[in-house]
Amino acid sequence: MHIYVSGIGGVGLGPLAKIGNDAGFKVTGSNDKPNKYLKSFEARPNINIHIGQTREAIAKIHANDPIDWFVHTAALPNDHPELEFAMSNSIKTSKRDEFINMILKHHKLKLIAVCGTHGKTSTTAMLVWLFLQNDLPVSYSIGTNISFGENGKLDPKSEFFIYEADEFDKNMLKFNPHTSLIPSCDFDHPDSYADVNDYKNSFLQFIDQSVTTHTWSRVANYLDVKISSNVRLLDEVAANNATTLTGKHMRQNAFLAASVFSKITGIDMESSLGCINEFPGTERRFELIAKNLYSDYAHHPVEIKATIQAMTELGINPVVIYQPHQNIRQHELLDKYKGCFEGAKQVIWLPTFLSRESDSKLPILSSQTLAKAADSEGISNYGQMGSKLKAAIKQSLESGDTVVCLTGGDFDPWIRNNFLASTTQN
Questions:
Q1: Could you say which of 69, 238, 264, 425 has the lowest number of CB atoms within 10 Å?
Q2: d(Cα 17, Cα 127) in Å, to the nearest integer?
């Protein structure tokens, strides 16, 4: 079977391409432009990748070796030239969920799905870390790069498939997991959900579709979950004292992962917690880019607060540079910002990164408006990506400050391009 992955350089589709390759399929992929994630395919020379997504390019590939299945991101527009070509040539097209469900069925894998507003990636990676460190075969898909393996893998000897089940586009509802984990839940993705009730009801449906769900009392209370034998609630107090990881949210993610791992494998909790204490982290989750310079994916007020809390545990009052993500999200979350920058020495606001904007009629909220909502006006400055921001970051680092860049958009690659090579030797 010839699989064509459109957007192979994305954190959702890239792991899927590697899984398809492990399954023995011929895999071809395209990306609109080069990015750092494509480097992870250097160890997979039999996956053919080209830059540029044109009708002419995919037509040439299809003529030489017919494509059987065109897999694409949920964010791909209907008028995308590759998608239009696939549809007009009767090529099977689907989002990633249909392909993953085929893998699960064909290889008789039990799905462990991690779903939630915050903590999905870290919790998924922690579960994978536990399996690998205990020499247990496992298949998985993680939505970021990791240092201890590839971000997507199919092991023919594995019993379980660990999957970061995103709630965007209601992706998680396409699965019937053997085991589900929900590390957190707050309203998000207003471009995929009509309102808060729609969001909550989707999570309730996800729980109903799962054989067993592991979560916290605060999540169950938020969703108004009817507690039954298939819902297991964990002790938050015990979680906060169980590991040596930095950050309350990371300790809770770790406890959740270790608890589920022990339940599934029979390996005792003490050993699992000891193993999780050595967890090396993932890319873009409190990631040290250079000396005193961090990048973090936090782009929701709850995530911002958690990241700053983790830094204050280390005795750090950071200089925060924040790039809001999606204007529609800012309108929905405006009243959630209050106090989320508590503990920061300074906040530099960048303009909102516009992504998947479906309602152009919404006025774009200014950085000043968002800072006022966050009660951070007294410590806030406003900037743009460019030479002035680069100089400001350099000055903060030279004065001994710790800088944390919070972004779900294009600020992360900008930081890496401007500081990774020039500061790692310091």
A1: 425
A2: 21
In contact, 145 and 83? CB cutoff 8 Å:
no
Question: String of b and e for 184-216 (b: at least 16 CB within 10 Å)?
Answer: bbbbbbbbbbeeeeebbebbeebbebbebbbbb
178 or 189: which carries more pLDDT confidence? Answer: 178
Is 293 in contact with 284 (CB distance < 8 Å)?
A: no
2-94 adopts what CATH topology?
Answer: Rossmann fold (3.40.50)
Pair of tokens at residue 212? 């067993």
Q: Is 150 helix (H, G, I), strand (E, B) or coil?
A: coil
Q: What confidence tier does 421 reach under pLDDT thresholds 50, 70, 90?
A: low
| Gap between the Cα atoms of 376 and 371, Å rounded | 5
Region of poorest pLDDT, from 124-133, 252-261, 410-419: 410-419
**Domain 287-423 class?**
alpha beta
pLDDT exceeds 90 at position 339: yes
CA distances in angstroms from 220 to 28, 155, 213, 243, 255, listed in the order given: 42, 34, 11, 23, 17
What would the pLDDT profile of 75-109 be if each residue is shown by its tens digit? 889 999 999 999 999 999 999 999 999 999 999 99
How confident is residue 361, by pLDDT bands cut at 50, 70 and 90?
A: confident
DSSP 3-state assignment of 210? Answer: coil
Residue 283: its pLDDT value, please?
85
Q: What is the pLDDT of residue 362?
A: 86
CB 230 within 8 A of CB 208: no
Domain residues of the chain, as ranges? 2-94, 107-276, 287-423
- CATH topology assigned to domain 107-276: UDP-N-acetylmuramoyl-L-alanine:D-glutamate ligase (3.40.1190)
